[in-house]
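Hi R.,

Here's the input for the S-adenosylmethionine complex you asked about:
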Amino acid sequence: MTSELGRLIARRIALAGPIPVADFMAEALGHPRLGYYRKALPLGQAGDFTTAPEISQMFGELLGAWLAERWQAMGRPSPCLLVELGPGRGVLLVDALRATRAVPGFHAALQIHLVEINEALRDLQRTALTAHTPVWHERFDDVPAGPMLLIANEFFDALPVRQFQRTPAGWAERMIGLADRDDETLRFALAPGPSPFGALLPQAAEPGAAAELSPAATSLATAIGARLAENGGWALLIDYGRDASGLGLSLQAVRSHRGVDVLDRPGETDLSAHVDFEAVAAAATVAGARILGPVGQGCFLRRLGIQWRAETLKARATPSQALAIDAALDRLIAPDQMGTLFRVLALGDRASTLPDGFSDPPPDTP
Ligand SMILES: C[S@@+](CC[C@H](N)C(=O)[O-])C[C@H]1O[C@@H](n2cnc3c(N)ncnc32)[C@H](O)[C@@H]1O
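And here is the predicted structure with S-adenosylmethionine in place:
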């Protein structure tokens, strides 16, 4: 049994033919009524996944300190846009703003802009950030121009990817069609001829090899990079992904914290793909931005002093709270948890000094 959205997609395919994987992903996540990110509350223990800011306050606090330092490096512009793409429950910004209350002039300069398509999450963000009067947008392009600090944690991985397979005739696009014309069962198929996108993929790949491209991710990186180059500012993109473009498919589906089939019950299942940080960085560079990273999330957070922050919190904690702080620290920075798979990329203007977190050796463990 598929979902209501699965039936709609099947009807569209029956009428108009197979669709690219990126179109399927865009519908499954963003369909105005039935898309996964349009519906109530995907995050947290009761939802489908848990993100770094939901694991510990330390994550948002350290990112807040990084942002405040960048604001000073930019020459303390006022106003300064603080933009978050896909703020979830607003936890990251709440922690970041609490941690930077004492930075003179910082909060007074900030105008908060949130890019969010989920109404239920917008309500939670409104409650969490009420003191800071945020403004919401459907798309980054709607955010006004100006000096900008931007955060995107686990946002780029939800942007649609196109998939390709190498054939003797060249790179053909992987499509989604129907198992049978009268059936609602979705299945992968291959476009009959080579794709023009093939020119962007490795020409020496063997038949059978597969690859992904995300035009949505690179065009967003271009837009952010161009804004930073023109108006000044810094952006931190944090996501799971790979540093170098290459072969392989990464699109995956998660429901209730478990991996499921990508085509299973669209609209009720989270879909995400590894971010190609090389492609994102190249797009932002061409648009005029300076690039630092990507570095592993563990390395980045250690350079910002997460272990010292954990010690400070533990000094005021009960024994069970201290154990929870250690467990959260491990989850955020250990190489076999989020520390290596999650990458941190900074984009910035060319006028400010370089930021923390990208080149200094990590401080000794306290
Ligand atoms: C995986 S969650 C991450 C939430 C938050 N950044 C965190 O780390 O907890 C993705 C967020 O992006 C939002 N989102 C997903 N696709 C979007 C899109 N195309 N435009 C705007 N927001 C989107 C979701 O509603 C959600 O708030």
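One thing worth noting: DSSP finds twelve helices and 16 strands in the chain.

Cheers,
M.
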